[in-house]
Amino acid sequence: MEDALLIDAAERYLRGEMSIQEKEFFEEMRKNNAELDQLVVEKIFFLNELDKYSETKHFIHLLNETSSKLTEQGIIEKNAVKGRAKVVFLWNKYKKTIAVAASIAGIVSIIGGILTSVFNNNKINNIKPLVEKIKEQDNKYKSLEKKIGQLNTGNISNKPKAESKFRATGFLVDVNNNLIVTNAHVLNEAKNQLFIEDNKGNQFIAKPVFVNNENDLAILQITDEDFKKYLPAPFGIKKNVAELGEQIFTLGYPKQEIVYNEGYVSAKNGYQMDTVFYQISATANEGNSGSPVINKNGDLIGVVSSRETNSEGVVFVIKSSFIQKAINDLKQSSELTNIRITTNPSLRGSDRVSQVKKVQDYIFMIKGN
Amino acid sequence: MNLSEEEKQLLVGLANKDNQIIELIYKENYSMITNLVINNNGSSDDAADIFQEGMIVLFEKSKQPGFELHCQLKTYLYSVCRRLWLKKLQQQKKGGVKIEDIEQVISVEEDIELHERNQVNFTIMENAMSKIGEPCKSLLEAYYIHKKPMHQIADEFSYTNADNAKTQKYKCLVRLKKLFFAQYKNG
Known about the structure:
Chain A is 39% helix and 23% strand. Chain A is an alpha+beta fold.
């Protein structure tokens, strides 16, 4: 049964608006179909919550009316309110809920470590409350990383590891110049050093060669001599627009280990209809900034940039056409004329497990301090 | 202590959102709460907020099936507002304030806890509402909060008939439900 029909049925059932036959039929259906029953239970819970909300909302409305009326009549005194516009008065009444609502509407950029972003100030304000929490988390990660580092010192590279203030994700797109794509907002965190780290803990110095804050894209070049040559990337960059409902997967570093996630394209535009982004339904956490989003053909459809603060699974992804554009711009404006992007992805036709296996070596942590 | 008939009626009226009863409770208690808050580090704005929240707690209480108030309404409201204000002071790190009581105080911890739980879901719903966009928000508010009949809503929102408005309402409801659970299951 369709969701809307079911919610209609649940509502009429709750309000006793069903005929006896319909009610019997409905109850019978619930009894025989546990799955359906679960859905009904969920809807009933929701409708009850909505009722409670509506009641309280209406009551607050009445309280405000009463309070305004009595204040006007001079029966109750409200010094601070007197002479002020009613809007201000209502604002004060509601400011608490409004503030929460506003912060919910905000979006959070997904980068482990301290949060700042290329987003405008308004949005930064909205994400402020999260900052401290993530700092704490970051410190926990750090101490954990240190411990892990101590345990494995034998295996990891001989170079002393640089301390990192943050962690994000990036991926190798060109092997002639060792170019890595990530988010522009990630670079704001690297005041001194910028480096990438592979899944074995080896670190390589990198420098930004292209930054577009508007589209939140950056391209880094690995300048470290120790970086060994890779084969061309197994994924291509999708030229046309991804389809709604298209299955996708992401790989990134929300923790000190590569993490796989899957989902689908849920909207063709991003936060507040921003056309630079898609919205995907998938899990993404701090550290996922810069993660590639790849479809089943092995085409890169975008780069993870941010997510809605309080809605799990609402993730915004920079469209691949902007990545292609960034690469073209870089080609024209620099000496890096031999950039080559894979056009015939070797991922095509493989199953998901082998796709992931092939891709994961091309994905790096972006770190710095 | 048994409540007088008059007080019982006040509570029934409150549960039914009777305008006159609300006004009466306002008139009889507002200055008491203002005194409480202003004499303890608060502004008159704070007092208005606290009074409103106290009224909501009382309203929630009055709607509970078979509820009883074991003290005067005035005492209850004072105790609730006092507790709410103390909490607020603690949040603002103005803690350690000792309130000079001007009224008798009873324990209202359980009611406040219930209220806080309600408040969490209320805020989640409020956020979901703020995110569904127009015309959904206004449509659902018209139907659920202001209890307008469907044909009137169809008129106001220029739907051809009540059935169309109803279909639209269910679509909006499904979206609201998704937004609500997205956060509810998260929290």
